[in-house]
Amino acid sequence: xxxxxxxxxxxxxxxxxxxxxxxxxxxxxxxxxxxxxxxxxxxxxxxxxxxxxxxxxxxxxxxxxxxxxxxxxxxxxxxxxxxxxxxxxxxxxxxxxxxxxxxxxxxxxxxxxxxxxxxxxxxxxxxxxxxxxxxxxxxxxxxxxxxxxxxxxxxxxxxxxxxxxxxxxxxxxxxxxxxxxxxxxxxxxxxxxxxxx
Amino acid sequence: xxxxxxxxxxxxxxxxxxxxxxxxxxxxxxxxxxxxxxxxxxxxxxxxxxxxxxxxxxxxxxxxxxxxxxxxxxxxxxxxxxxxxxxxxxxxxxxxxxxxxxxxxxxxxxxxxxxxxxxxxxxxxxxxxxxxxxxxxxxxxxxxxxxxxxxxxxxxxxxxxxxxxxxxxxxxxxxxxxxxxxxxxxxxxxxxxxxxxxxxxxxxxxxxxxxxxxxxxxxxxxxxxxxxxxxxxxxxxxxxxxxxxxxxxxxxxxxxxxxxxxxxxx
Lengths: 197, 266
Ligand SMILES: Nc1ncnc2c1ncn2[C@@H]1O[C@H](COP(=O)(O)OP(=O)(O)OP(=O)(O)O)[C@@H](O)[C@H]1O
Ligand SMILES: [Mg+2]
Description:
A: 8 helices; B: 40% helix; globular
């Protein structure tokens, strides 16, 4: 059980980390360029609406059974929330603060890293929270394509009609989700305090 | 340490129109500002004072006319490097909320590649100039400063990297009336030493008269009058300027007297 929980957490943490490493820089770079940002958002949104079982079924065709397919699906779903919330966070920075960064003549990379990124952190964290909770739920479906984690317990329990296994798996998912929610809420609160005037 | 020569500015029928507005926000402003001059700009709210400053660092683009820096068209400068030679303090203070006072001050010098030791020494020096004890305020975040303290840090940030031009938009707006004359005198001193060309916007006529080598009066996007404080007080060019700058007789005499204290050699 402990092994399944840690495998589940590892699965989700890895996926969210990969998605963030892609989506946050992309969003910072594109927040000012709606002509690129809007089609990309639409694309990620479309990806997000593909039913998860269908996506997994397709991925298995190409990647095979196992965790790799699950990770790819998780990343694909997480991208949308993180990208959108980062864009929204940058756009919500008071115009005055962004304008001062411009007026000081900071080069654009410095503007993004030293001013926009830190001021958008609360919004980014809320995107990470949504992506993480989504992944925790979604990762259970990985049991269906041979992934590890609590999904394996749930699917085995289902196959064996073992109620104890099912309850254990479900409780595990709820516990992780709750912990993640609380942890992110706390981080967001302290980040909001830091970033406010 | 090389401090580069201050800029000379020329506005040549500079005009600004904001999208969606029929009227010009700046209407054919023509004005020469000598290197090292301190020009104060007064005018009613909404008359275009901030817009005038924001044309110079190109936060606002002209729709007509031009601005020259040392004889060269402003539009031909590489934007970011040019902006780093300008000290700008905005009306709303504009300190970065997530950075400490010292980090706010260090942004531009870091970008200019100053060594750490020089940045640190300059932070202490400039905070002392605006009468904030560096040991107390270096590590503060903006939300832990009073309005007047934050404005002084804003001025310090503008002065930090030996700018060739200062654009100060009501920098003393939130400084209390007791400290204000002290800071005015102090700033005057700093600027006289540095001989930095300065455009200084203020609502406060006394401040404008006391600080300015010349005063420009802006009204409804137009330049109404420009001249030395003494000339403006003694021979105001028109009635509305007279009403704005001279006040009643008592005030007029007080203003002339205060001017005399400044004109005394120090
Ligand atoms: N970005 C903008 N878009 C549209 N109109 C603007 C913009 N900025 C300023 N204006 C308008 O231009 C005019 C001049 O504004 P400006 O901020 O220069 O006035 P000001 O003299 O600095 O006033 P105050 O003393 O209140 O600061 C005003 O009518 C204002 O509404
Ligand atoms: Mg203004």
